[in-house]
Amino acid sequence: MELNVNVKSVSGKKNKITTIPIPYSQDKMTVRELIEETVLYCVNDYNKRKENGDLLRALLPQEIEDKAAGGKISFGMIYGEKDVDLKKATNDAVQAFSDGVVAVFADERRIKKLDEVLKLTEIQNLTLIKLVMLAGRIW
Fold first, then answer.
1. What is the distance between the alpha carbons of residues 14 and 20, in angstroms, rounded to a whole number?
2. Residue 70 burial by CB count (10 A; 0-12/13-18/19+): exposed, middle or buried?
3. pTM
4. Domain coordinates of the chain in residue numbers?
């Protein structure tokens, strides 16, 4: 089953919500399983883009404006040489959810428990938000 996942990082650099269609193996799963499958999809996508990253393409004027508004104009190439460790990425994502650094919303309801079972067929949109902790300087 395929589900539209809205991804937004709460920061000034990215001012858009990106919708990604992600295929899931089941239509009923726990939040932990959902996070694990989402990470698997993202890691595989990253590794594919990394392998094909040597192809340079021109940016359209609208893309340049969007990237300039975000503070960085780049071609989206991946310059790192290492592949992502899937097990570590999955553990980090589950830990981030447990710590409250990542919020998951099924439609407009926030999911707070890893063992909660979700029926994906009933969810119109899944939203993942990476929260940023604010801190000030004392000096």
1. 16
2. middle
3. 0.72
4. 2-130
